Amino acid sequence: MSDRTAAVTRETAETEIEVTLDVDGDGDSTVDTGIGFFDHMLDSFSTHGLFDLTVHCDGDLEIDDHHTVEDVAITLGEAFEEALGEKRGIVRFADRKVPLDEAVASVVVDVSGRPYYEFEGEFSQSEVGGMTSHMAEHFGRSLATNAGLTLHCGVDGENAHHEIEALFKGLARALDDATRIDERRSDVASTKGEL
């Protein structure tokens, strides 16, 4: 199997970001976005997806968390797109349902090359640890758009920390499943011959 890694940078007037990704990693991460809870979610994403991940972001947190979370998701999506290349041999489809105490998140993904995002549910509190809860939904949308994913997500629960963490874990597990190599397949999983 070829090396499925990427290093992507993004620099705007709002953020400066460096991301490295190894899709076939061990779950090692080094994350610093300036938002403690978001760092925790990205660490969890790395751990549960077995992705080696580094994220360094210097964002305009004096304004709010929006640009930091959105731009990290954009950059991470670009890293997945680059690392997966032609997507030869990948499983392509996956779904996961992940609980965290009273909360449960569901994630269905198609690594299709066609960006689409749907989200169902609400977060029970408006903010967790310096991160606006609705930015977890926006993270998924920005990731899907830039990684070329069809992504359907949902959450239910009573505690936004649990809801968001279950969502990030579910996303990690589904992406790990969908990006695995199926040894029976030498081409892409599409009748079109490309993804």
Amino-to-carboxy terminus distance: 18 Å
**What string, H for helix and E for strand, traces the elements in order?**
EEEHEHEEEEEHEH
Query: Helix proportion of residues, in percent?
Result: 25-40%
Mean of the pLDDT scores?
97
Contiguous runs where pLDDT drops below 50 for at least 5 residues? none
Q: Number of DSSP helices?
A: 4
- What global shape is seen? globular
Largest sheet: 4 strands, mixed
Keywords:
195 residues; alpha+beta; four-stranded mixed β-sheet; 4 helices; 10 strands; 34% helix; 30% strand; cytoplasm; histidine biosynthesis; IGPD_sf
Care to describe what's here?
This protein is an alpha+beta fold and 195 residues long. Helices cover 34% and strands 30% of the residues. The chain contains four helices and ten strands, in the order βββαβαβββββαβα. The chain has helices at 36-49, 66-84, 134-147, 160-179, and strands at residues 5-11, 15-22, 29-32, 52-59, 93-100, 103-110, 116-120, 127-128, 131-132, 150-156. The protein has a four-stranded mixed sheet with strand order 1-2-4-3, with helices on one face. The longest helix is centred in the last third of the chain and has 20 residues, at 160-179. It is globular and about 45 Å long. The mean pLDDT is 97.
Chart the SSEs and their pairings.
Elements: E1 5-11, E2 15-22, E3 29-32, H1 36-49, E4 52-59, H2 66-84, E5 93-100, E6 103-110, E7 116-120, E8 127-128, E9 131-132, H3 134-147, E10 150-156, H4 160-179
Parallel strand pairs: 3-4, 7-10
Antiparallel strand pairs: 1-2, 2-4, 5-6, 6-10, 8-9
Helix pairs in contact: 1-4, 2-3
